[in-house]
Design brief:
single chain, 470 residues, mainly alpha, Growth Hormone, Chain: A, 16 helices, 76% helix, globular
Length: 470
C-alpha cells in the first residue's frame, strides 16, 4: 500500500461501489432482454442460456486470475484496466451480427468483470479497519444489489426506447463515470511480479470444468448421449487435471489451501449455493412471465426489481448488525428465508396471480440482504492482507460456480416450449439447494467469526497480521 491514505466513507465507497456494480448490472439488464434476443435471433429458451453461461464462465474462471494480478501490480490499477476492457467489448457486443458472435463478445465482457470485482473488494479490504468490515461490506453489497435492482428497470426502459442492443451499449457511459471516480483514489502498490503465479494448465482445467457443467444441462435438454458424455468428461477431466497439477506443484489459479480454513470454505460454499438459487430465479422469471403468463418485458423488470430493491434496503443494516452480534445469526435467518421462498415458488409458478409471485421474490431479496455482507466479511477475515486479491477472487468465483450450475439446471429442466410443471420442478430442486445452504451457516467456527482486535497491518507496515480464522 502506498504511503497515501485512501479516503474513507462515501469518498472511498462510491467509486469502488460503482466499479463493482457492472457485473450484477450486466446480468440483470440482459435477463430482461433474453425474450427479445430469442425472438430476434431465433434462439430457444435452452440455447439462450449459452449467452448467460459464456459470461458467467469467463467471470468465474478469470476472477482468481484477476485477483492475483491485483496482488502483484496493485488492485486499483487492475480495476482501471477492467473498466477499459468493459468499454471496448460493450461496443463490440452491441455490434454483434449473429448469436455466436454475441456469445463470444459477452464472454469477453465477463473478463472485464473478473478484473474489476475482486480487486475492488480487495482495495476496500486494504483500507477498512477490521472492526468496520461488516458495515463497509454491507454497504458495498447494497451498492451491488442496487445495480442488480436497477438493471431490470434500466433494461426495461431501454427495450421500450429501442432494441436489446441498447442493453449492451449502456455500459459505456457508466464505465466512463466509474473510471473518472476511481482515478480520484490513491493507487496501492502490489507485491511485485514475483507473487504472480499463473499456471496455464490449471487455468484450462478450470475452464474445462465450468464448460462441462454448462454443456451438461443442454445435453440433458437435447437428449444427446454423446454430448452428455463429452460434458461429463470435460467436468470430471478438468477437476482431475487440476487436482493432479495442484498436488504436484502446490500452485494454481485457485489456491486450494484456502479451503482448509473453515471460516473461508463455509462462506464460499454458501456463496455458491445461495447464488445458485438467486441467479436461476433471475434468469427463469422473465422466461416464465413472458412464455407462460404473456406479460411484457417491463413486467419482468418490475418483478426482478422487487428482488434487488429488497437487498438494497436490508444489506447495509445487516452489515452493521453483524459487526455487533456476529454474522452467524443473520446468515442462519437469511438461509431459512431463502428456503421458505424457494418452496413458495413451487406453488407460485403454477399460474398464481402476479402479485403473489412477488412475495417469494421479495423474500429471496431479503435473504440475500441478510446473508451477503456478513458471509463475505467472515471469508475476508480468514485472509492475510497479502491474500486479499487472490482470496477475494476465489470467493467471487464461487458465486459464479453457483450461477453456472443454475443456468445448467435451467437448461436441463426447462425446454423450448416451457410448461408450468417444468418450472415447478426447477424450484423443487432449488429448494433442495437452499436446504443445503442453510447448513453452511452452522459450519463457521464459533468465536472466530468476529473482527480481530487492533489495527489492520498492511504489506510494508511491519509483520502482516494473519487472519487465519479457521
Amino acid at each position: 500500500m502506498s504511503a497515501t491514505v485512501a479516503p474513507q466513507g462515501f469518498r472511498l465507497q462510491a467509486p469502488i461501489g460503482l466499479a463493482s456494480a457492472f457485473a450484477p448490472l450486466n446480468s440483470t439488464m440482459i435477463a430482461v432482454g433474453l425474450p427479445a434476443i430469442r425472438r430476434d435471433l431465433g434462439i430457444g429458451s435452452g440455447a439462450i442460456t449459452l449467452l448467460v453461461s459464456s459470461y458467467l464462465i469467463a467471470v468465474a474462471v478469470c476472477q482468481p486470475v484477476g485477483g492475483r494480478l491485483g496482488d502483484a501490480f496493485g488492485h486499483l490499477r487492475i480495476v482501471k484496466a477492467g473498466l477499459a476492457v468493459l468499454v471496448f467489448f460493450s461496443f463490440a457486443s452491441a455490434l454483434a451480427w449473429n448469436f455466436e458472435v454475441l456469445v463470444a463478445m459477452r464472454a469477453l465482457q465477463g473478463v472485464s468483470a473478473a478484473l474489476i470485482t475482486p480487486n475492488a473488494i480487495a482495495y476496500l479490504r486494504k483500507n477498512t479497519p477490521p472492526e468496520r468490515l461488516g458495515a463497509v461490506l454491507g454497504a458495498s453489497g447494497a451498492a451491488i444489489a442496487g445495480a442488480a435492482a436497477l438493471g431490470p428497470i434500466l433494461g426495461g426502459l431501454l427495450l421500450l426506447a429501442g432494441d436489446w442492443r441498447l442493453l449492451l451499449i449502456a455500459n459505456v457511459p457508466l464505465a466512463l463515470l466509474a473510471a473518472a471516480l476511481v482515478f480520484t483514489l490513491p493507487a496501492d502498490k502490489g507485491a511485485g511480479r514475483a507473487v504472480l503465479k499463473l499456471d496455464p494448465v490449471s487455468l484450462f482445467a478450470l475452464l474445462a470444468g465450468f464448460t462441462g457443467i454448462t454443456l451438461f444441462g443442454n445435453a440433458l435438454r437435447l437428449r444427446i448421449p454423446a454430448l452428455t458424455g463429452v460434458a461429463v468428461l470435460l467436468f470430471a477431466g478438468g477437476l482431475a487435471v487440476y487436482a493432479i497439477r495442484y498436488a504436484r506443484t502446490r500452485s494454481g489459479v485457485v489456491d486450494l489451501r484456502l479451503f482448509t480454513r473453515r471460516n473461508y470454505s463455509a462462506p464460499a460454499a454458501g456463496n455458491a449455493l445461495n447464488n445458485c438459487v438467486m441467479y436461476t430465479t433471475l434468469i427463469a422469471m422473465p422466461i416464465y412471465l413472458g412464455d407462460l403468463q404473456g406479460m411484457s418485458d417491463f413486467a419482468s423488470a418490475m418483478a426482478l426489481f422487487v428482488l434487488g430493491a429488497t437487498m438494497v434496503v436490508i444489506g447495509p443494516f445487516a452489515g452493521r448488525l453483524s459487526d455487533r452480534v456476529g454474522p452467524r445469526p443473520l446468515m442462519s435467518i437469511g438461509a431459512v428465508i431463502m428456503l421458505l421462498a424457494s418452496v413458495a415458488l413451487i406453488g407460485a409458478t403454477n399460474g398464481a396471480p402476479f402479485p403473489l409471485l412477488l412475495v417469494p421474490l421479495l423474500m429471496i431479496g431479503a435473504s440475500l440482504g441478510l446473508i451477503s455482507g456478513p458471509q463475505q466479511a467472515v471469508s475476508l477475515r480468514a485472509l492475510a492482507p497479502s491474500e486479499a486479491g487472490s482470496g477475494s477472487g476465489t470467493y467471487q468465483m464461487m458465486r459464479y460456480v453457483g450461477s453456472v450450475a443454475g443456468t445448467a439446471l435451467l437448461a436441463g429442466i426447462v425446454g423450448k416450449q416451457a410448461t408450468y410443471g417444468e418450472f415447478q420442478l426447477l424450484f423443487l430442486v432449488l429448494s433442495g439447494v437452499a436446504a443445503i445452504n442453510l447448513a453452511t451457516a452452522f459450519l463457521i467456527r464459533p468465536g472466530t467469526e468476529s473482527p480481530p482486535a487492533g489495527p489492520l497491518l498492511l504489506p510494508g507496515e511491519g509483520r502482516e497480521r494473519e487472519f487465519r480464522a479457521g
